[in-house]
Specification:
With about 375 residues, this protein is an alpha/beta fold. The protein has helices spanning about 20-25, 85-95, 140-155, 165-180, 200-205, 210-230, 240-245, 245-260, 265-270, 300-305, 335-350, and strands at about 35-40, 50-55, 70-75, 100-105, 160-165, 185-190, 285-290, 310-315, 325, 335. β7 (about 285-290), α10 and β8 form a beta-alpha-beta unit.
Length: about 375
């Protein structure tokens, strides 16, 4: 039976405009208490991935109710990690459904063990990986390896996935690449504030208040690129990295050469999830706001036009970038995270024995 329609997003009156919505979620929001347990996986190329678990790797740690439950796999955004406030919020909401949770830290984004919630204005600490690549918006090999490793380790696993911003782009691209071959264990997926068209997003952030957002991210991106060059000299354009002030410049001088792209344009063309949404066959929810300061609104219309029937587009007029704050100041709620988890719960709970989840179709519901 299909759940009742989810309540529409009504922005908090005390956070008018996209920028306050975006910043409150990263600066003033209270992070829920989510105990995480670190597991390290070796990768085929000799590197390591840090997986941070809620409920334990085998489902037997923590409350007994976790054992055998569905597993929520979360993917963080640019320069985020498992301790980002939105990731803790999603894991906490999943816990309320009795789910175990797992946050995949992309390479070079792993927080030190035992670190607390990460806020946007705090000094970002991370553990640099040792391999010959970092991470980027279209890198899906690690996600694929983790999904298949989990399924191999836990036969009968029911897996739901959620990605925020860059992590959402990675998730949609992977789902599109897999198409009908996505593992049966994957029941549903949801994304929040994805930069579907990387070239358009990069250009958009070069005007208005965009450079102020870019400045926050680019310092650690430059630091990582220079540290990468110390271990693997001759790949990164060091002087280009030092001069970089925009995403295109850092992508041209570091991200593209590290990961085998000709330049930033080649990287954007091959990694943008907008070119993969038509191939998705798993029930998937896309939540984005037309006033997202990281993406021009026109891109949402194109995503909606291209999306397959398995995709549900819920694009709101307001909400900022992964903000979507609702409710009064004494009891704020993060609507997009609640909506994503509700969608995943609906598809996980409604699965009939022996049913193929790829037979389900989504719906398009723009709330503009």
């Amino acid at each position: 039976m299909r759940a009742e329609p989810f309540r529409p997003f009504r922005p908090a009156w005390w956070l008018p405009g996209p920028h306050l919505q975006t910043l409150w979620s990263r600066v003033l929001r209270r992070g829920p208490r989510v105990p995480l347990e670190r597991e390290t996986w070796a990768t085929p190329d000799g590197d390591e991935l840090a997986l941070d678990w809620l409920g334990g790797p085998s489902g037997h740690c923590g409350p007994s109710g976790f054992s055998g439950a569905s597993l929520l796999l979360g993917l963080h955004g640019l320069e985020g990690c498992s301790r980002s406030l939105y990731m803790l919020g999603l894991l906490d909401l999943g816990r309320r459904h009795g789910w175990r949770g797992l946050a995949l830290n992309f390479r070079s984004c792993t927080p030190p063990p035992g670190s607390g919630p990460r806020r946007v204005l705090a000094r970002r600490q991370y553990m640099m990986n040792r391999g010959r690549r970092l991470y980027h918006s279209g890198e899906t090999q690690d996600l694929d390896g983790v999904v298949r490793g989990l399924i191999e380790r836990e036969p009968g696993l029911e897996l739901v996935l959620v990605g925020v911003s860059l992590g959402g782009n990675v998730l949609l691209k992977w789902l599109g690449e897999m198409g009908a071959d996505v593992p049966d264990a994957v029941r549903a997926a949801a994304t929040i504030s994805v930069p579907y068209d990387l070239a358009a997003a990069s250009r958009y952030l070069e005007s208005g208040l965009g450079p102020r957002y870019v400045r926050y991210f680019i310092e650690t991106l430059k630091e990582k690129a220079l540290r990468f060059d110390e271990r693997h000299p001759g790949i990164v354009d060091v002087e280009g990295v030092r001069r970089a002030c925009t995403f295109r410049e850092i992508d041209d001088s570091a991200i593209a050469p590290i990961h085998g792209f000709a330049d930033a344009d080649d990287y954007y063309a091959r990694s943008s999830s907008i070119d993969y949404v038509d191939r998705i066959r798993v029930p998937t929810l896309l939540v984005s706001a037309a006033d997202d300061p990281f993406l021009p609104a026109r891109v949402l219309s194109e995503v909606e036009r291209r999306a397959s029937d398995a995709v549900t587009c819920e694009f709101t007029a307001r909400g900022g970038h992964a903000g979507f704050v609702a409710g009064p100041p004494w009891r704020p709620r993060t609507w997009a995270e609640e909506r994503a988890i509700a969608f995943l719960a609906e598809h996980a709970a409604s699965r009939a024995p022996g049913a193929d989840p790829r037979q389900r179709v989504g719906r398009r519901a723009a709330g503009r």
